[in-house]
Structure formats: C-alpha cells, structure tokens
Design brief:
Shape of chain B: globular
Structural class of chain A: mainly beta
Helix content of chain B: under 10%
Number of helices of chain A: 0
Largest interface: A-B, 24 and 22 residues
Number of strands of chain A: 11
Structural class of chain B: mainly beta
Low-confidence stretches of chain A: none
Number of strands of chain B: 12
Order of helices and strands of chain A: EEEEEEEEEEE
Number of helices of chain B: 0
Mean pLDDT of chain B: 92
Low-confidence stretches of chain B: none
Distance between the termini of chain A: 33 Å
Mean pLDDT of chain A: 92
Helix content of chain A: under 10%
Oligomer: heterodimer
Distance between the termini of chain B: 41 Å
Strand content of chain A: over 45%
C-alpha cells in the first residue's frame, strides 16, 4: 500500500461548488502539506501543518481552507470552486528528525472546475 | 529568499545517450537540495537529495547530482538514459535548519527517444 494516499484521484466540478480533497498517510510523519501544480510553474504551497493544532498558510492560500482531523489526515477544501483552481493537487508529508524534513508526495488529485 | 531556476524546460535525448538537467539556486544561507521525478500521470518521487557531506549524491535509477556551492548549482546527470526515464524532473531547495519552505523550480521535461 502507498504511504501517502489522496482521494479522489480525479474530480470534475462546476463553478461555485464546494469540494474537499483528502490526504492520508501511514508514514507516521507529523508534518503535512498541500501543493498545487500548474504547467510551467512547478509546485506552489497552499497550506502546511506541523501537527493537529498547528496550521499555517502557504504562498497561495486564498480560496482554500484545510482541516487536520488527525495526525494522519489532512484535508483541503475549496469553499466555492472557480475555473482558475483547475490544477493538479499534491499532498506531502515530512518528519523533522532523521531526514531533516524531506518531503514525500502522494499521487495527486486532478481537479477540473468548469 | 530562495529561488530555483531550471535552465531547460525541455530536454530531448536519444536512448543510451548521457543527459544533464541543470538547476541553479539563489540563497545567501546554507541549503538542502532535492531532485524529484514525476512520471506521466503519477505523483512526485524523490530521486535524490543533498543534506550535507559529500557533494556528489547518488540517487535511484542511476541518477546522480553534484552540489557546487561556489556556482550555486545542483545539476542532475545520468550517463546513459532509457526510454523509461521520460518524465518531468523538478529541482527544489530549502534553507537548512528548522522549518523552511521547499521552493520548486518550474520543471524540466526529459523526452528520451529510441
């Protein structure tokens, strides 16, 4: 089984709808992240969380919210989806000790907003 | 602030030829450096990383990279590529110590032709 899983893997939705993307990990890591990938722009950080009670905005948090339901679960919500949120979304995890916060990524969720 | 420049957006190469994917970063402080690979329709997989020690780092699938502090570069190399190496490759940098954001380059698409 994969260490970092994301659901759904693909989603098509309409403008104005609320969407939730979910991420689960079995790596035992304390830190979790949400990124979006757009062609030619690499990955950009949306939100990150160091533990259940510590959530921080990344560089492009507007229009998004997150919830850290447990150490192993981190959800990303689009309260009212818009077409320019069409992108590939990645969840990642890391642990400070040992590998000095090296991040490991899930398989991604492809979101299309019509 | 750190930034990452991947000098080539696309690199076409024939099978069994050598390849170098270039990455330069800007930072006035010590950094950790990473290369990730994204195969078609898949997530990001850690290829290799430089945290400290030897400046020549070996990764999976026969790839290696050399950290050059004076030139602020971390170029990725493989002496003989295979068709299966066709993918997008991302260079990323992070300040060492504590938590610091992982900054990604825009990516280099490697296309290996028979």
């Amino acid at each position: 089984d994969a260490d970092v899983t994301q659901t759904p893997r693909n989603r098509i939705t309409k403008t104005g709808k609320r969407i939730m993307l979910e991420c689960s990990q079995t790596k035992g890591h304390d830190r979790m992240y949400w990124y979006r990938q757009d062609p030619g722009l690499g990955l950009r950080l949306i939100y990150y969380s160091f533990d259940v009670k510590d959530i921080n905005k990344g560089e492009i948090s507007d229009g998004y919210s997150v919830s850290r339901q447990a150490q192993a679960k981190f959800s990303l919500s689009l309260e009212s989806a818009i077409p320019n949120q069409t992108a590939l979304y990645f969840c990642a995890t890391s642990h400070l000790a040992g590998e000095r916060d090296t991040q490991y990524f899930g398989p991604g969720t492809r979101l299309t907003v019509l | 602030a750190q930034s990452v420049t991947q000098l080539d957006s696309q690199v076409p190469v024939f099978e069994e030829a050598p390849v170098e994917l270039r990455c330069n970063y800007s930072s006035s402080v010590s950094v950790y450096l990473f290369w990730y690979v994204q195969y078609p329709n898949q997530g990001l997989q850690l290829l290799l990383k430089y945290l400290s020690g030897s400046t020549l780092v070996k990764g999976i699938n026969g790839f290696e990279a050399e950290f050059n502090k004076s030139q602020t570069s971390f170029h990725l190399r493989k002496p003989s590529v295979h068709i299966s190496d066709t993918a997008e490759y991302f260079c990323a940098v992070r300040r060492s110590g504590g938590y610091n954001k992982l900054i990604f380059g825009a990516g280099t698409r490697l296309a290996v032709h028979p």
